[in-house]
Amino acid sequence: MNAQPKIAFSCSPTSKPVGAEARADLLKDPGFGRVFTDHMVTIRWAQDRGWHDARVCAREPIALDPAAAVLHYGQEIFEGLKAYTRSDGSIALFRPEQNARRFQASAARLAMPALPEALFLQAVDELVKIDAAWIPGDEGSLYLRPFMFATEAFLGVRPSHEYLFVLIASSVGSYFKGGAKAVTVWLSDRYTRAAEGGTGAVKCGGNYAASLLAQAEAIEHGCDQVVFLDAAQHRWVEELGGMNIFFVFDDGSMTTPPLSGTILPGITRDSIITLARGEGRAVREERYSIEQWRTDALSGRLREAFACGTAAVVSAIGQIKSASGDIVIGDGAGGPITSALKQRLVGIQRGDVEDSEGWVRRIA
After folding, report:
1. 350/342 Cα distance (integer angstroms)
2. CA–CA separation, 13 vs 179, rounded Å?
3. Strand, helix or coil at 167?
4. How far apart (Å, rounded) are the C-alpha atoms in residues 140 and 146?
5. Average pLDDT, the chain
6. Which burial class, exposed, middle or buried, applies to 260 when counting CB atoms under 10 A from its CB (0-12, 13-18, 19+)?
7. 216 exposed, middle or buried (CB, 10 Å; 0-12, 13-18, 19+)?
């Protein structure tokens, strides 16, 4: 399927675009995931036709048969990436080919067709170009949400024969309310995010739906996010509800949980590892227990902890709350290594730091 020829996109711009003044007002404080652009991309797949009917059109509701397979059997995957306005005024993406490949891996795990990498990137380019005016200034960006779901109308437990790929965009500011302050996380000792052999390593809606109750519990305890332990022993730290996690020690070394099949292989995670190792830091991908976390924080060996992902980029973790007692990391306000890694990563994305890894892809 990846060898399919390049598809021509039809383009039907919206007849009712948001006016410049109204758009500017929305972009003053877009928050996260609340402000959407004028257009979207859709591409269809059928067992007998492959990928076809690629369109750029007005963002609008999707007509769906009530027997559509996604509504009954949950065949659905998604991705998340951003378009940035760089310091020279150009627009660029950060490692979008990695999102395309992870989208393919997610599709394979859920028995869905693979969207060719070139077609994924072409769809992103088309939407960013037509909705470039929606990219906020300052630290804002255009969050891109590609997703795909089963549309065949049938009731039966088998892969669908029809799918719809959709790409929408949202103008975003800071992911966490209050900006760059260190976040507080809740340790979930009742719920697990994923188990070995499951879908923890892919981006499908079911993973996130299963985390919502734990996230609600975190909010009840005054926390910003929830951190999950492994499903087998309820001992090993895995990841937050939607982000990978790193630990920084007094010798400058770092640890992050390994990709064992239950943890999402984050693109930001991989970038952080590359940058840190490039600075000469030791970065271990190994299991780290909640007992170790508590002991190392109390002794001072653990100096910093942070979460990372496309939406939040890098967020310092200042405190963890749990039923068995709270843990404060360092002074509870983050630390210099977390801050420096975030600044360097954002600098590469924005064009203020040299892109020695070739990660940035400009939009023509």
Report:
1. 12
2. 34
3. strand
4. 19
5. 95
6. middle
7. exposed
Render 259-301 in DSSP notation, one character per residue: --SSS---HHHHHHHHHHHHTT--EEE---BHHHHHHHHHHT-
Cα separation, 259 vs 266, in Å, equals 10
User: Is the whole-model pTM more than 0.85?
Assistant: yes
Using CA atoms, how far apart are residues 40 and 55, in angstroms rounded to an integer?
8
CA 201 vs CA 69, 260, 284: distances in Å: 22, 8, 19
The CA distance from 204 to 193, in Å, is 12
Give the pairing of strands 35-36 and 162-172. Answer: antiparallel
- Partners of 147 in beta bridges: 78, 166
Helix (H, G, I), strand (E, B) or coil at 148: strand
What is the tens place of the pLDDT at every residue in 93-113?
999 999 999 999 999 999 999
Task: Give the residue ranges of DSSP H helices in 95-236.
Answer: 96-109, 117-130, 205-220
CA distances to 57, 96, 194, 216, 236 from 126, in Å: 10, 14, 35, 37, 42
Helix axes 96-109, 267-278, angle to 10 degrees: 130
